[in-house]
């Protein structure tokens, strides 16, 4: 039974009423020093790192240790407080800190303290001065680990939001670069920034992302990958609809192409959307290589993806149902290789694929040096022992190893995981129905991909709906002189026309 419009309105009103009830009531600030300290300690549950510094008989500074910058606290705030009139307005004008506010609500400045603010309380006043001097520790800038490239920038994002924003602004020195801040998570109060270039990004996509973030009602958010899943068009799909990248140059390239970006505090991965299926197989380094080399590498990447997904299922289907497609010179050694194998091809293939995945997962989770050793030695030892024990054939060892190697050519980690997983149901269908099973798997996958969207944009663009002008640069990398600043599904047509007009004027 579908709900009618009246029921939907009632449900919406109930949700809004619940949200209003959940909002904390406004609590005044006590003008008495002892009562003020007692209330703050109760709110913070008397933590051991709660510090109280007395400036005078009527003025104190309270903060949480290790969250504030002690240099700014001692050299600026405490020094300037000794030379100012003891009123919130005078202190607000005197302090030479970029972020200083006067607050008259208890819960608000408690949240600021937990984000690295020092609070100045004056006896007899129901307002406090909040000076934000946070000193969060973060690792230094380093090369990206999951998206390495030979030619191009070697700097990646870190976990500090302000550092990441500064990296982006170094690439894009444009006043049209918009930065909208949000706070998510009732428990974590995680800060994030919505970034886009005004006049280039499609307003519909910006409004969609803004609305989805505003509608979220969650307790915590600790990473951008969680946020991407929450605001996806279809969070139940195995295919990612938003790109997670740790490269500032790739992120800025997306913004310049009309995409919308999100940077989350505490995460080294930024989000780009909307993103089409074909774009997950394009690397930022493709733009830095000469176009014939980049085109060859991109075509090689597509061939490797096809090999990784379908090579093992074709082996299983051919040996189970379609011996006639195997060339005669290959049929004899293949039969001799499988003569002592007690399992049917489907069991043999699934067993070996699982062993490869176990080795890959163990190598990824162990320390770097140990992980590399486990991957190489484990693969050689287990492969040799499996052939000698008659569990699998030599040819299948080569096919599975080639498929695993091909899966590593995918430049995006999230899409690489998808390719690893979709092989297994295709192998099962190939073992049950042969080539017909493979065709069924391809049809089901295409149907699912055609139904997907990213921020409402078609996921299979530019192939569906067909945009023939964008096909060449999606499959190969055209020379830069032939490439318009037009991505698969996210560029304002007006901006393209304006760029062309500017070029004509320049000529």
UniProtKB/TrEMBL annotation:
Matches recorded under Pfam families: GerA
Membrane-crossing residue ranges in chain numbering: 299-319, 370-389, 426-450
Alphabetical GO biological process terms: spore germination
InterPro entries in UniProt: Spore_Ger (IPR004995), UPF0353/GerABKA_families (IPR050768)
Residue ranges of the region described as Disordered: 1-32
One of the record's GO cellular component terms: membrane
UniProt organism field: Ureibacillus xyleni
Protein name, UniProt field: GerA spore germination protein
Basic and acidic residues bias (residue ranges): 7-30
Similarity field: Belongs to the GerABKA family.
Keywords carried by this UniProt record: Membrane, Transmembrane, Transmembrane helix
Coiled-coil parts of chain: none
């Amino acid at each position: 039974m579908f709900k009618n419009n009246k029921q939907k309105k009632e449900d919406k009103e109930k949700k809004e009423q619940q949200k209003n009830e959940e909002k904390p009531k406004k609590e005044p600030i006590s003008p008495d020093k002892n009562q003020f300290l007692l209330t703050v300690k109760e709110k913070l549950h008397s933590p051991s790192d709660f510090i109280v510094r007395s400036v005078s008989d009527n003025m104190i500074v309270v903060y949480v240790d290790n969250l504030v910058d002690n240099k700014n606290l001692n050299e600026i705030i405490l020094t300037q407080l000794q030379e100012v009139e003891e009123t919130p307005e005078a202190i607000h004008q005197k302090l030479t800190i970029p972020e200083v506010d006067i607050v008259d609500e208890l819960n608000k400045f408690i949240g600021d303290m937990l984000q690295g603010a020092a609070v100045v309380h004056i006896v007899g006043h129901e307002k406090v001065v909040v000076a934000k001097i946070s000193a969060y520790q973060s690792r230094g800038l380093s090369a990206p680990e999951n998206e390495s490239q030979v030619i191009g920038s070697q700097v990646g994002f870190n976990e500090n939001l302000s550092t990441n924003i500064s990296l982006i602004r170094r690439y894009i020195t444009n006043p049209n670069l918009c930065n909208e801040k949000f706070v998510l998570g009732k428990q974590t109060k995680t800060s994030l920034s919505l970034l886009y270039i005004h006049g280039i990004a499609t307003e519909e996509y910006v409004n969609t992302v803004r609305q989805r973030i505003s509608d979220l009602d969650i307790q915590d958010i600790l990473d951008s990958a969680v946020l991407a899943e929450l605001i996806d068009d279809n969070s139940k799909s195995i295919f990612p609809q938003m790109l997670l990248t740790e490269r500032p140059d790739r992120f800025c390239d997306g913004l310049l192409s009309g995409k919308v970006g999100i940077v989350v505090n505490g995460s080294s991965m930024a989000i780009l959307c909307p993103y089409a299926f074909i774009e997950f197989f394009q690397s930022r380094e493709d733009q830095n290589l000469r176009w014939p080399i980049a085109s060859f590498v991109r075509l090689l990447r597509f061939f490797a993806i096809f090999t990784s997904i379908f090579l093992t299922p074709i082996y299983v289907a051919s040996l189970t149902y379609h011996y006639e497609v195997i060339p005669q010179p290959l049929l004899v050694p293949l039969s001799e290789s499988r003569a002592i194998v007690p399992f049917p091809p489907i069991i043999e293939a699934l067993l070996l694929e699982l062993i490869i995945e176990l080795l890959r997962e163990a190598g990824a989770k162990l320390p770097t040096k140990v992980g590399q050793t486990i991957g190489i030695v484990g693969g050689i030892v287990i492969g040799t022992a499996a052939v000698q024990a008659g569990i699998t054939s030599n040819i299948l060892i080569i096919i599975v190893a080639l498929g695993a190697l091909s899966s590593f050519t995918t430049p995006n980690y999230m899409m690489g995981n998808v390719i690893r997983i979709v092989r297994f149901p295709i192998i099962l269908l190939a073992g049950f129905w042969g080539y017909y099973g493979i065709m069924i798997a391809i049809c089901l996958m295409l149907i699912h991909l055609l139904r997907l969207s990213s921020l409402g944009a078609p996921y299979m663009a530019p192939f569906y709906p067909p945009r023939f002008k964008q096909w060449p640069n999606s499959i190969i990398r055209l020379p830069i002189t032939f490439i318009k600043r037009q991505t698969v599904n996210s560029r304002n047509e007006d901006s393209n026309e304006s760029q062309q007009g500017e070029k004509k004027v320049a000529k």
